[in-house]
Write a structure and sequence with these properties.
The complex is a heterodimer.
Chain A lengths: L2 H4 L6 E4 L9 E4 L3 H7 L4 E5 L4 H10 L3 E4 L7 H10 L2 E4 L4 H14 L1
Parallel strand pairs in A: 2-3, 3-4, 4-5
Antiparallel strand pairs in A: 1-5
Helix pairs in contact in A: 3-4
Chain B lengths: L14 H9 L2 H4 L13 H11 L3 E6 L2 E7 H10 L6 H4 L7 E2 L4 H10 L4 E5 L5 E6 H26 L7 E7 L9 H12 L4 H21 L3 E7 L3 E8 L7 H4 L9 H5 L7 H8 L2 E7 L3 E9 L3 H7 L1
Parallel strand pairs in B: 3-4
Antiparallel strand pairs in B: 1-2, 4-5, 6-7, 7-8, 8-10, 9-10
The chains are: A alpha/beta, B alpha+beta.
Chain lengths: 111, 313
Amino acid sequence: MTISEMTKLTELTLVQKEFEDGVISGGYTSDLLSDVIANAEANNILITIQAHINTVAVSKLVGIRAIVIANHREVPIDMVEAAQKEKIALFSSTLSQFSLSVLIGKHIHKQ
Amino acid sequence: MTDKGIPIKMEESTSLILDLIYQLKIKDVMTRNLVIASPEDSLDHIKTLMKQRNVTGIPIVKKDRLLGILSIDDIFKALDSGYMQELAEKHMSKKLVMLEEDMPLAFAISYFDKFKYGRFPVVDKNNLLVGMITSRDINVGLLMAINKEVARMEELLAQTTPVDAHHIRKMFRIRKYDFEHAGNASNRIKKLLVERKLDPKDIRRVAVAMYELEINIAVHSDGGTLTVIIDQDHAEITAKDSAPGIEHPELALQEGYSTANEWIKSLGFGAGMGLANIRRVSDSFDFQSALGKGTTVRAVIHFKRKEEKSHDH
């Protein structure tokens, strides 16, 4: 599944639109940035409640292409700007990390 | 009044600074756009002039000849004693210490140290007033000259260094609680390693170690430095801070042990995984810390050799 296909999911709201499109190879769900940097993989989508600028820094280091902020957490403007600069897609959702993982996982594995 | 001296000690200065203060002439740094007054002007008029032009001393000039200087101190005295309508020539100071425009800047610096004046008039060979010099003029002129000189030296250095193009040494300063910039150093080094076409796994290991060290300094120390040395076959990362140090260094290495506060934890840091993560990705790792002495962490990562890489595929 590509990021642009993901924008069509009604459960997700795209909050940062300037991204580099590509296929999402898998996902990683975590709120601990040390865990993300140690275990997430390049081209993953990150599902997290950590709505702040450093999540973007970690994503860039790992090669994560899209971030979903779960549980309707507010996304600060500096995070949006940082993601825009790195061309990382940024979504927000009212769903929990678990529900988002199930939902996105289903779409990724359909292919 | 603050000391108007300029703290350049000739015997302790570097040869670059000494060269500059002897090469630069007073006319290179002085102010030429002068605010002057005539001896027949009233103190009241001069006070207004000082306020309008934002100066604290005005040369009193007649037909290009400098007769005296009226300073803001003279105005204060006149205000106190109520003779603001009197003329400048009566109250200006006539004992003048002057500098000549072709003198080296070093002369002006020693004058500011010797005489505690805020400014000196500058005259030409014919003793005509051509400018004024303050310690600010010296600061600005010297800074600009130093800047130019450092730029020239950097250029020279850039031309001479590539003895080993694979050797890079970079130092980053990390500030306490600066999460906005945390990750910048790691991302810059990552970019460099990507350009060098290293194995992605090695790049990831360096990125993990650097990021965790950046965060550690930002979260736990009062600020510190991250030094990265990259050679053809390895990267060496050293994190150093001077305070406060770790009370139980032996516990700090245990996964899950953390002294971070709730606020830090709510940001997704301080899970007690940092040092363990660094140790896991490093080929060699040492860690020294003592309360009151700060912490030093050194991680070395060896890159896979090209031959090994080809076996992988």
